[in-house]
Design goal:
With 360 residues, the chain is an all-alpha fold. Helices cover 58% and strands 1% of the residues.
């Protein structure tokens, strides 16, 4: 039998149950109203709009969709490569001889002069700090004049000589290819024949070097380096004449000194002195200009001679008789300036210094 409960206790328990139920009812959240089922049409429409937005992005980027207000295209800052490519493209299709004369008359602006001088220096072809020539001279100037260079220095000199000689000839090839607008076959032949000529020069250099010590006096104008690295000497060899390096058309020959050289050489050969035939490259010492008051060398005499050594000045080309080297450079055809630097490397540094002083 269960124990009897006190009535007061039963009453209290009922009150607690009532109070607890009321309390729960007070804090119970109301039930949410039943949701309406979504309309599938809106879902389909949203998917269609998303696909349409994705499709419009590339169309707008490519400019296929017109808008009420068109924005001007963003301008691209000109770069060397961009500018040079534009210039090269503009020359295609023009008559070679007419274009050559036009470029001679037009000359170069400060930026174009800087490009060429910086390219020359960038290849290490000048004689300034960090150049290949300056590095070679630093190796030979480390001891007394009578002492031969060390074996290590001698090996480095040989490698530097090969590098400098190869880059000089590559600069010359590039100048010819640009001025003459050589086609792919001509460029291939040019590279092959000039490489063969360089190999012959290298073999002569090696033979001469075996009997000549490297000393403080070793420069590109001295043996054994002169036939390999001194451009006025190696370039004077007939093997490096443009028409000997590859077959040129009549129009291409017309902007070189081919006719002039042929006439001079034939005249000497006709006189029975074939061994005295002049070089194709006329770099003879300049004569003094004599007046009643004094004798002096023509202003820009050597620079003019070197600039026009391969590609002559055109009729109407305004070459200055006074001023600075930069003034002369601005009146040249690009290839004439390239040849002027190759035949006297220090001019690259002089031009860059003048450009800096002028703020150009």
């Amino acid at each position: 039998m269960s124990e009897p409960q006190d009535p007061d206790t039963e009453s209290a328990t009922e009150e607690e149950e009532v109070d607890l139920e009321a309390l729960l009812e007070e804090f119970r959240e109301p039930e949410p109203p039943p949701r309406k089922r979504g309309n599938p049409v809106w879902l389909i429409l949203a998917v269609i709009l998303s696909i349409l937005a994705i499709w419009m992005v590339p169309q707008a980027t490519e400019g296929k969709i017109g808008f009420g207000i068109a924005k001007a295209p963003a301008t691209m800052k000109a770069t060397k490569v961009r500018d040079r490519s534009a210039i090269a493209a503009a020359l295609q299709g023009k008559d070679l001889s007419e274009d050559y004369v036009a470029r001679c008359k037009k000359g170069l602006n400060s930026l174009e002069v800087r490009w060429i001088a910086e390219d020359f220096r960038g290849e290490g072809l000048d004689d300034g700090p960090g150049s290949l020539l300056e590095t070679m001279q630093s190796l030979t100037a480390s001891g007394p004049a009578w002492a031969p260079a060390s074996a290590e220095s001698s090996d480095r000199l040989e490698k530097l000589a090969g590098l400098l000689g190869g880059r000089q000839r590559a600069w010359y090839r590039s100048a010819l290819a640009d001025a003459l607008r050589l086609d792919d076959m001509q460029r291939h032949t040019l590279k092959k024949t000039s490489s063969e000529a360089f190999q012959e020069d290298w073999e002569s250099f090696e033979k001469s070097r075996q009997s000549t010590r490297d000393s403080i006096y070793a420069t590109t104008r001295d043996a054994p380096y002169n036939g390999l690295l001194y451009a006025p000497q190696w370039l004077s060899d007939d093997r490096y004449a443009p028409w000997r390096l590859c077959q040129l058309s009549t129009e291409q020959l017309g902007i070189t000194r081919y006719d002039e050289v042929k006439d001079k050489q034939l005249a000497v050969i006709g006189s029975g002195a074939a061994e005295d035939a002049p070089s194709w490259l006329d770099l003879k010492p300049l004569h003094l200009v004599t007046t009643e008051e004094l004798s002096y060398e023509e202003v820009f005499g050597q620079e003019k001679r070197d600039a026009s050594a391969v590609f002559p000045f055109a009729e109407g080309q305004k070459i200055p008789d006074e001023g600075k080297l930069l003034d002369l450079a601005k009146t040249l055809h690009p290839t004439q300036l390239k040849m002027m630097l190759l035949l006297e490397p220090k001019r690259a540094g002089e031009l860059l210094e003048e450009l800096e002083r002028e703020g150009e």
